[in-house]
User: Fold this.
Amino acid sequence: MKTSTRCPRCEHELDEGPIMYRCAHCRRAVYAADLENEYVPRPRVAA
Assistant:
């Protein structure tokens, strides 16, 4: 089940690795099991 293929840090597309994904933009490696568990800050909403 593929949930998200975006980098948790910079929101760019990750490569198609089945176990470990890599972000070409920020050079971060993310395990597929951690994609759902990574903390992703929400965008700020103007008050």
Summary: The CA atoms of residues 11 and 23 lie 9 Å apart. The beta strands are 20-22, 29-31. Residues 1-36 form one domain. The chain has a mean pLDDT of 78.
